[in-house]
Amino acid sequence: MKHILIIGATGQIGSELTMELRRRYGNTNVVAGYIQGAEPKGELKESGPSAVVDVTNGEMIESVVKEHHIDTIYNLAALLSVVAESKPKLAWKIGIDGLWNVLEVAREQGCAVFTPSSIGSFGASTPHTLTPQDTVQRPRTMYGVTKVTTELLSDYYFNKYGVDTRAVRFPGIISNVTPPGGGTTDYAVDIYYSAVKGEKFVCPIKEGTLMDMMYMPDALNAAIMLMEADPTRLIHRNAFNIASMSFDPETIYHAIKKHVPAFEMVYDIDPLKQRIADSWPDSLDDTCAREEWGWKPAYDLESMTVDMLEKLREKLKK
Ligand code: SER
């Protein structure tokens, strides 16, 4: 039986991944790790164990891992791309010093580790269309620098110490439970909230800017599927390209407008977000993930839009 620790369990991905892992592996086997000030609430708190786990504190990670007999760690602690530009040192401390702590505990305690990378690990010199699995990774954002380092350090611990590290490169994740904070792709979440609230959406990203995106249920499935995959089939480890949809602001706007005809959008471009978005791929080639562990997304823009609008109408009582 698996005993799982999620570090960053109250964040955008963590809050939903924790619940999905509890559904699959049993509530008591999945520990929600959080930092003070970001305590779990509601169902996340009530449905299973939780513990304070600050990724920058190796001893704290070790004691929780030992106490709960943890064999798998999902390490989701990170600052997103925009906020990392204003706090580069903190982004490194959480993303890389924190990862080092996690990997050391994993090496000593025999844990498997999932630490996501991102489309942000690519940069302007990467081929932008159908970006290959193995290609140029020279990002100029601190977020990107930490994500490339995450991939390298995770592979290093696998090759040198045999730690079972695996990861995907997440696209922008669209979700309706916990909002993202400080990312370049956040607009694709915010636009749904505006549509459901009946507000005009002010888009910070230019028309024509393509970025890879994914609906949360597919993102959760990718992480769990990869950690369950037969290791003998894995040629790559850190980290796999995964893809399900790629669109620009006009395309998502029209997908929503089909269901909310009065919905309006105007542009007010954020130069930092635009610069970051321009440096990222337009679309990823995820052939390796499909071949090595059977990756296949379930949602496209239309089916995601229908589900997002329904879930947000319930949530916001609209
Ligand atoms: N969603 C992230 C960001 O925008 C990218 O992985 O920073």
Quickly describe the structure:
The protein folds into two domains: 4-171 and 216-241, NAD(P)-binding Rossmann-like Domain (Rossmann fold); 172-213 and 245-316, UDP-galactose 4-epimerase, domain 1, CATH 3.90.25. It is 44% helix and 14% strand.
Helix-strand layout with pairing:
Elements: E1 4-7, H1 12-25, E2 30-34, H2 42-46, E3 50-52, H3 58-67, E4 72-75, H4 81-86, H5 88-109, E5 112-114, E6 117-118, H6 142-161, E7 165-166, E8 168-170, E9 172-174, H7 187-197, E10 201-203, E11 211-215, H8 216-228, E12 240-241, E13 245-247, H9 249-257, E14 265-267, H10 271-279, H11 287-293, H12 301-315
Parallel strand pairs: 1-2, 1-4, 2-3, 4-5, 5-7, 6-8, 8-12, 9-11, 10-14
Antiparallel strand pairs: 11-13
Helix pairs in contact: 1-8, 3-5, 5-6, 7-9, 7-12
Give a written overview of the molecule.
- GO terms for molecular function: L-threonine 3-dehydrogenase activity.
- The chain is an alpha/beta fold.
- It has twelve helices and 14 strands.
- The strands form four sheets. The protein has a six-stranded parallel β-sheet with strand order 3-2-1-4-5-7, sandwiched between helices.
- Bound molecules: serine (SER).
- Serine is lined by residues 80-81, 118-120, 143, 170, 172, 183-185.
Number of strands: 14
Could you give the distance between the termini? 42 Å
Biggest sheet statistics? 6 strands, parallel
Taking pLDDT < 50 over at least 5 consecutive residues as the criterion, the unreliable ranges are none
CATH fold annotation of the largest domain: Rossmann fold
Mean pLDDT score: 98
Strand order of the largest sheet: 3-2-1-4-5-7
Structural classification:
alpha/beta
What hetero molecules are bound to the protein chains? serine
The global form is globular
Briefly, what CATH class of the largest domain? Alpha Beta
Q: CATH superfamily of the largest domain, please?
A: NAD(P)-binding Rossmann-like Domain
**What letter string, H or E per element, gives the SSE order?**
EHEHEHEHHEEHEEEHEEHEEHEHHH
Q: What CATH architecture label of the largest domain applies?
A: 3-Layer(aba) Sandwich
Can you tell me the number of structural domains? 2
Helical coverage, percent range: 40-55%
- Number of helical elements: 12
Rg calculated over all Cα atoms: 19 Å
Beta fraction of the residues?
5-15%
